[in-house]
């Protein structure tokens, strides 16, 4: 049978480059503001918030959801408040460090309990919700590919923590940029490759195969 439907790529479903690029700009603003004002945390904080406001306005014009924009802006404000409260510039990145620790654990745990987050996300985006779990091959493939995403967060933690601990703010800013959309793009590519390597050759791909017309459930 050569009527196997063409498989969708994981990248075409997830996309996400614009959002990842946008997320990397406020931290760059913080570092630039901090340097330009003679290592002033306050100026760095205002620079980061200013960049976040501009990015948020552009996202709204682009048609992004207002709630997502507000959440992103709130995250930047929270990071700035943490740094201002502790008086340590590197603590602007503390929430980011902790969120990557939590994400690494959460993605790994989701695969272990057979509710892989990659499958949950893709299932929602494709409108199949959690029906993909009825397919053992797809469940196994999503579980293994989800571990690739967990490794992404582990890598960030391994880079961020030593830089944060030693107060290397400029290096943190550079790492935050390099390990945002470039790493995310690599993760999507590798997890997609892994997923399709695990699936049988005749499997339709990311979706649970729908029953043929007239064949019932």
From TrEMBL:
Pfam families: DUF3159. InterPro entries: UCP010219 (IPR016566). The chain crosses the membrane at residues 41-61, 68-85, 105-127, 139-161, 181-199. It comes from the Bacteria. Keywords: Membrane, Transmembrane, Transmembrane helix. This is DUF3159 domain-containing protein.
